[in-house]
Amino acid sequence: MNVLNPTHDPALRSWVDSANSAGTDFPIQNLPFAVFRRQGAEGAGGGGGGGERFRGGVAIGDQVLDLGAPELRSLSSGVVTEALVACGEPALNSYMALGPAAWSALRAFLSEVLRADSPHATRLRTALVPQKDAEYTVPTRIGDYTDFYASIHHATSVGRLFRPDNPLLPNYKWVPIGYHGRASSIRVSGQEFARPVGQIMPKGASLPFVAPTRSLDYELEVGIFIGTGNALGSRVPLAAAEDHVFGLCLLNDWSARDIQAWEYQPLGPFLAKSFATTISPWIVTLEALAPYRAPWTRPADDPQPLPYLEGPILRASGAIDIQLEVWLETARMRAEALAPERLSHSSFRDSYWSVGQLVAHHSINGCNLSPGDLLGSGTQSGPAAEEAGSLLELSEGGKRPLALRSGETRTFLADGDRVTFRGWCERPGSARVGFGEVAGVVLPADLIGLN
Hints:
Blueprint: E1 33-38, E2 55-60, E3 63-66, H1 70-73, H2 78-87, H3 93-97, H4 100-114, H5 121-124, E4 128-130, E5 134-137, E6 145-148, H6 152-162, E7 178-180, E8 186-188, E9 191-194, E10 197-200, E11 209-212, E12 216-217, E13 220-226, H7 238-241, E14 245-252, E15 255-256, H8 257-263, E16 277-279, E17 284-285, E18 293-294, H9 312-317, E19 319-320, E20 323-329, H10 331-335, E21 341-347, H11 355-362, E22 374-376, H12 391-394, E23 402-403, E24 409-410, E25 418-425, E26 433-443
Parallel strand pairs: 6-22, 8-16, 9-26
Antiparallel strand pairs: 1-2, 1-5, 2-3, 3-4, 6-7, 10-11, 12-15, 13-14, 13-22, 14-16, 14-17, 18-19, 20-21, 20-25, 23-24, 25-26
Helix pairs in contact: 2-4
């Protein structure tokens, strides 16, 4: 996964002109996957009879290359044909299950047919759909979702709010912490959801009450899609862990902090996080991210990983330098045509636990991971205060309101707020590779049936 090949050549150009534009998220060196169809193409009956089915697509510039198009399949053979057939399904699970050799073969094929000198350009133009005309869905059937806590900067900042003298619990530097989340409420970018309602126990109160959350927050995360799984009772060694990872996306694990504070002990997150999780439509493959690998390090005075979480590949290239941003657009900003405001900027490179370590630890007990399963990295915060990946940190638990250019303030999210994450990789000598964006909008709480 970390080896550079001709598909990474920064000099490559595509016959899709928009893929050659400076600053594009989707040059020919990226080729991320989504599941899409044309907007309004579900047909009468919601896609049953005569409607257009969801199927796999690859981003190239401002277009989607339809992986189910017969024009594309007619140019393929062998494992590439098998991969394209699997990508024609309404979820990418079957394609992910084919494994790294098939993923690389399809990437190489797509790179060839999309290059500026390809003789197939005219033929394949009919297989393009403008991204502005497409709608997207969750790209896999997510059987299971696990959310980790892999940023030590986030863990320390949050811990300091509640345990000033001992912010990190003793196990944090030894074991990747995670919990089993709710897969059924995961949606793709553009999700609108009602402010969640739950039990709240304010500080100093004697009785809890049921009400809409007053402390709704976002969590800036990286999503990790499992490709090939492992059998129940087996484990994935660290050296092979990334062979089981198809790619990464952006993930917002919305959180109701006041509900969470009351319910999380002793078993951890529950209703405070299960109401909504939003992911970006595009999955950037690990192969596309190869130019942005970096050494993974652990401070010398910290405990070093146990043997099953340690190895030379990890040390040489276990980190990935993904730039991450959070943007906020309030209802007032929209009404007054004001630009959204950036709240923070951090890097996935600062994660305390790597992608491979999360997979290896998840399976150390024999837990079976399956194609299409999703792991969350946990909130990705950097070492500086302005690199915090949540409002909980930025507002210091609600004690320090953020002043916005619109004249508003925020400690936590208000109804009508739109939160957008963006992510990308860039460095001299390599083409910029982007993740697009993930956005969601907070609607007022639904109070029907509470009384």
